[in-house]
Amino acid sequence: EYLYDIVRVIDKNSFAKVFSSDLFAEIYSEALPPALNITINNSTTPVENISGSWKYNRFDGKTYTVEYNKTEKTATFNKGPHDEMHFDFSSQPDLVDVEVLQNGKIVDQFALEQINTYKPKLDGIYTYKLYAQWKAKNNNANGRICYTFNVKYDIDPSFTISSKVVRLGEEFVIYARNIADISSVQAVSSYPYKPVFYPYKDEFVALFPISYMTTVGSYSLELTAGDYTQKFNFDVVDREFETQNLTVDNATLNDTVNSAVANSEYNAAVAQIESSSEPAWYCDGEFIEPVQNYELTTPFGVKRYVNGSKKASRHPGIDMAVDAGTPVKAANSGKIVYAGFLQMTGNTVVIDHGFGLKTWYLHMNSLNVKKGDMVKKGAKIGEVGSTGYSTGPHLHFEATVNGTSTNPWTLFKQNPLQEQKPAPEQSASSSGSKSSSSTDKASSSKTDSKSSSPSKPSSKSSSSSK
To answer: Which end of the chain is more exposed for a tag (fewer CB within 10 A), N or C?
Structure first.
């Protein structure tokens, strides 16, 4: 009745002025942003955490802006792997963008149409922010409003392995996904190795090396996280290794492989180096060859007979013969965990690339780095020499995964964390950069007395030698 009396006694302009005042703001239904209801599993819940800027017109024809901020309650929705969420706006927006946060940090962004196909990598509670935009048209209310709610995901863990067929001396990768606490993962294998997992991007990974001394055959691997278990079988397949006859002078033998002091010093150094690994992944793509324009005198895994011995030793790396003084470069980025002289291997550098992967550089004339240095791929770390247990100027280059020697040629062809692909074999006397044209020559016999690293009993788990 009060409003009716006002209308009877005032003119049109006065009417617009009066009813456009803040005193009558509540009569404008369009002053409120559109409501949003979410339905999941046949249950509908309104979103009450709303904020943003909203514009509407009053009787006087002017546009009024309301800064809206209602954060009294944040709804939480439980979403299983096959559940769909349905969104019902009281006024359909022109555009909706979605922002996903966890622990206050943005983890993903996408359009509303993708919300039901989105799956986070880990289960847990995620905060969703829907930014809805209504465009100005025909003097309708418009603005940009943020609707905030939580979604609790229940996602099963997942394990995959990069290859189920692995050649002697190679490695495969275990990927663990949708796991919040990697300490809950248990690995049981018929192969004598316990994988170590490290956080990588939005998952956990573990390198699983296969020694070239392993018995070929099928092995089992069982991975468990909580009450979830996945079982795998992988086959270790044979590869042919070259045979080499090597002549070494007695003075070199007595100073190195036959010396108790040299062996003790070397074994102690290896034990210390392999006692830990960097939890960060420092590698920058594929590895580069540490020297250029070399002659490959000893491939990976060679069966070597020294001075006519009837018992073969094994060679865990590759020997790259090149002139003394040639720069030796870091095959990839990482941390220097050893840089010094060992009676057995001469001037030696070991780079930890993370996740248990290390590269070894032996017999150098001089070193350009020290323990603790961080180096980039391609940085000079020393110069080629013939120190320690060596028969001529060359670089012995080796790769290990948690103490197991693996084929370094694989590193030159792919990032170790990518899908594994067979690397081409390298035969003795190949030369050049990358030597990629070399074929799988095996069981060839070669007598070589220069530019090699004579074999010795090693403390590393491959039971091989330098």
So the answer is: N
Q: Tokens 């070239």 sit at which residue?
A: 212
The residues, ordered by sequence, that sit 6+ positions from 41 with a Cβ below 8 Å of its Cβ are 83
CA dist 180 and 279 (Å) reads: 17
Which tokens belong to 265? Answer: 């010093």
d(C-alpha 13, C-alpha 284), whole Å: 72
Region at 82 (left for phi over 0; alpha for psi -120 to 50; beta for the rest)? alpha
Backbone angles phi, psi at 372, to 5 degrees: 100, -15
Task: Let me know: does 361 contact 327? Beta carbons within 8 Å.
Answer: no
Domain 158-237 is found in CATH 2.40.50.140 = no
β partners of residue 204: 176, 199
H/E run at residue 15: helix 12-19
The answer to whether 243 and 446 are in contact (CB under 8 A) is: yes
Q: How far is CA 419 from the centre of its chain?
A: 12
Strand bridging mode 346-354 / 445-448: unpaired
Q: Strand 445-448's sheet: what is its strand order? A: 313-314, 303-306, 243-246, 445-448
Domain boundaries, the chain: 2-153, 158-237, 243-448
pLDDT by position in tens, the chain (length 466): 555 565 555 666 666 666 666 767 677 778 889 999 999 989 999 999 999 999 988 877 888 888 988 877 899 999 887 889 999 999 999 999 999 999 899 999 999 999 998 888 777 899 999 999 999 887 689 999 999 999 998 888 889 999 999 999 999 999 998 887 888 899 999 999 999 999 998 789 999 999 999 999 999 999 999 888 999 999 999 999 999 898 999 999 989 999 999 999 999 999 999 999 999 999 998 999 999 999 999 999 999 899 988 888 899 999 999 999 999 999 999 999 999 999 999 999 999 999 999 999 999 999 999 999 999 999 999 999 999 999 999 999 999 999 999 999 999 988 888 644 444 444 444 444 433 333 333 333 333 444 566 544 444 543 333 4
Buried b or exposed e, range 168-190, using 16+ CB within 10 angstroms: bbbbbbbbbbbbeeeeebebebe
Does residue 319 contact residue 451 with C-beta atoms inside 8 Å? yes
Is the domain defined by 243-448 classed in CATH 2.60.120.460? no
